[in-house]
Amino acid sequence: MDIKPFMSIVVAMDENNTIGHNGKIPWAPLPTDHYWFLTHSTTTKDPLKRIALILGRKTFIDTIAFFKKYVPRWHFIVLTQELPGIFYEKYSNINRNQTDVVNTIDQAAYRAKELIETPDSMIESAYLFGGVIPYEQALERDYVKRIYLTRIFAKVPDCDTQVSKFDLNNFQRIKRPKDELLAEYDDKIIEENGWTYQFQVYERKNV
């Protein structure tokens, strides 16, 4: 299957492309960014449909723990080196009909496309939630069509989680039409809890 860019990334980064430290976000809570993140990743044009989330195992565990009320809005595609049987046994409380287990970003992309393109599908689109390796691999393989980036205007010291291969050369920054979801926030600079940041939207060139 030849896959053209189709998935979206939603991510917050500082100026060093840092996204975390010790498994946590390395800046104070940013309520507007939280709203931006969840609104994009849970809203569908068809209210009966859901969004496929591609994410690593650790990110998956954090997501279902911290965003319990939003879990019904998602179909999970979990990247892990564990065999599906072992994964489902370990996390026996998850809904298997709502969770696919794959071993590579290619398998994740194929599964997401399959879910979206199946006739009468209940999956409308796909978002990539991280962590670092899925972000880098999806960008390297040209699976990403759009990036919703929250750029933190700071260089947070002593952090251990950085997306070092975050190359935007194949993307162009855009200002979306006013009727698109949360387009009024594009390029907006916000100051909250001692941090300054901006919502930036990038789209792959020549798609």
From TrEMBL:
It comes from Adineta steineri. The keyword NADP applies. Pfam families: DHFR_1. One of its GO terms (cellular component) is mitochondrion. Gene3D superfamilies: Dihydrofolate Reductase, subunit A (3.40.430.10). One of its GO terms (biological process) is one-carbon metabolic process. Its EC number is 1.5.1.3. Residues 6-204 form the DHFR domain. It is an enzyme of class 1 (oxidoreductase). This is dihydrofolate reductase. Pathway: Cofactor biosynthesis; tetrahydrofolate biosynthesis; 5,6,7,8-tetrahydrofolate from 7,8-dihydrofolate: step 1/1. PROSITE patterns: DHFR_2. It catalyses: (6S)-5,6,7,8-tetrahydrofolate + NADP(+) = 7,8-dihydrofolate + NADPH + H(+). Keywords: NADP, One-carbon metabolism, Oxidoreductase. One of its GO terms (molecular function) is dihydrofolate reductase activity.
